[in-house]
Amino acid sequence: MNWKRAALTTALVGGPVIALLAYGMTRDPREIPSPLPGHLAPVFTGAVFAPGNDDGLRLAVGDTVRLAEHRGRVVVVNFWASWCLACRTEHQALSTVARNYAPQGVKFFGMLYNDETPNGVNWIEQMGGQAYPALSDPGARTAIDYGLYGVPETFVVDQRGFVAKKFVGPVEAGEMSKLLDSLLLTTGAPNASTNAVAPVPKSLPSADTKR
Amino acid sequence: MMVALTAARRAMLALVFAVAPLLQAAAQSDPAPSAAPQTVLVPPAGVDSVLDARVKTVASRLRCPVCQGESIQDSPAELSAQMRLLVREQLATGRTESQVFDYFVQKYGQWILLEPRAEGINLLVYWLPILFLVLGSVGLMMAVKKWTRPATIAD
Fold first, then answer.
1. A101-121, pLDDT tens digit by residue?
2. Is any Cβ of chain A less than 8 angstroms from the Cβ of B82?
3. B108 vs chain A: nearest CA distance in angstroms?
4. For residues B48 and B116, what is the distance between their CA atoms, to the nearest angstrom?
5. Which end of chain A is more exposed for a tag (fewer CB within 10 A), N or C?
6. Domain of residue A56, CATH code
7. pTM for this structure?
8. Between A and B, how many residue pairs show a Cβ–Cβ distance under 8 A?
9. A136 forms bridges with which residues in the sheet?
C-alpha cells in the first residue's frame, strides 16, 4: 500500500520533471527566436564602401542606401564581417543568387558588422569580388536594430517592407532562390494594389526597373 | 537554482570589479569613435551620475547576445559596449527605462531580458515556487501528524 503510494507520487512528481528536461533536450539553447519576421523591417541608412561588381546592383562608394527607398522591391540584407568564417561559406552563393535575381529588381546589400571597412574591402577582394554593394554600420546601430547576435545573419524584406525571413548562419543558394521566387510570385502581381494600401514614400520604383 | 545563480553572479561581479578599471577604459575607448557622428548630445560616462546610474540599472538587466548568461553591463564584448551606448543615448534623449526595455524586446524578443517579465506563461516562474512551498509544507505537516500519531496511540 505504502509502496504503491510512493511509486505514484514519484511518477506524478518525477514524470513532469523528466518530461520537461526531455523537452529541453530537443531545443537548441543557442537559438534565439527573432521577433522580426512578419513585422516591418527596421529602416536603415548605410554608406556604400564597396561598390559590387554586378551591373544591375553596383552603387558608387560613398552613396547612401536607405531601406525606405526600396519599398516595392524585395531586399536582402546580409550581415557579415571579415573575421567571420561562416561568411566565407555563403559568399559565393549570395553573389550568385544576387546576380540571378538582379534583373527582377531584387536588391542585395552586405552590412559590415563590427569590422573596419578596409578589412571588408580586402576580404571582398580575397573572395574574388562580390556582386552586390557593401555598406558600413558604425556602432552596430543597424545590427542592434535587427536584433543581431552573430554573423552571418541574413534578412529578406518583402515588397511591403516586412521581414519575410531571417536566415541564421550560412545561406544556401537553393533555399534563398526558392524564397525569392515565392516572394516575387505572391507579392509581385498585386504589387500595385498593396502599394496603394500601404503608406509608401514618394518615389516608388517599379519592380522591373533596370538600373 | 536561484541561489546558485545569484552566487555565480556575485562571483562574476567580484571579477568585474577586480578588472573594472580595464573594462571602463575599454568601454570608453570602444564606442567613442562611433558616438562622434551621432547628432544627439549624450554626456559620456562619469559626467552625469544620475544618467550613469540609470544606464547601469537598465544595462544590468539586458542580456548580452554574444555571451553566456551575462548582462551587457558586465560583458566586455564590443556589441555590449555598443548596446550600452545605445541605452545611454535613448535614456539621455528622454526615453523611460521601460521604453528602452521595450525597444530591445521588440528587436530580440523577451530573451533579451535577464529577468522574465511577470506576465503570461512567465508567471509560472514566479508562482510555482510559492505553490510548491505551500504544497510541501502542507504535505510535511500531514506527514509529521502521521509520524507522531502511532506514538500517542502506543501510549
1. 999 999 999 999 999 999 999
2. yes
3. 5
4. 29
5. N
6. 3.40.30.10
7. 0.72
8. 53
9. A47
- Is position A173 within any domain? yes
Strand partners, B64: none
Phi/psi of residue A154, nearest 5 degrees: -130, 130
Integer Cα distance of B71 and B67 in angstroms? 8
Q: What is the pLDDT of residue B35?
A: 40
Name which of A160, A131, A130 is nearest A67 in CA terms.
A160
ipTM entry: 0.75
d(C-alpha B65, C-alpha B72), whole Å: 8
Residue to test with chain B: of A13, A32, A113, most B Cβ within 10 A: A32
Minimal-distance CA residue of chain A relative to B104: A147
Residue A206 placed within a domain:
no
* Tally of structural domains, chain A: 1
Q: How far apart are CA A11 and CA B31, in angstroms?
A: 54
Three-state secondary structure call for residue B113: strand
Mean pLDDT of B127-147: 93
Angle between helices B49-59 and B78-92 (to 10 degrees): 130
Tell me the fold of B2-112.
Helicase, Ruva Protein; domain 3 (1.10.8)
- Asked whether the beta carbons of A122 and A134 are under 8 A apart, the reply is no
Q: What is the rounded CA–CA span in Å between residue A35 and residue B110?
A: 9
Q: Which residues contact A188 (CB under 8 A, 6 or more apart)?
A: A159, A207
Query: Can you tell me whether residue A165 is helix, strand or coil?
Result: strand
SS3 at position A124: helix
Q: Is the CB of A84 inside 8 Å of chain B's CB atoms?
A: no
Q: Is A46 helix (H, G, I), strand (E, B) or coil?
A: strand
Return the domain boundaries, chain B.
2-112, 120-154
Q: Quote the CA–CA distance of A110 and A84 in Å, as a whole number.
A: 13
Cell 546580409: give the residue. Answer: A78
The answer to whether B38 and B89 are in contact (CB under 8 A) is yes
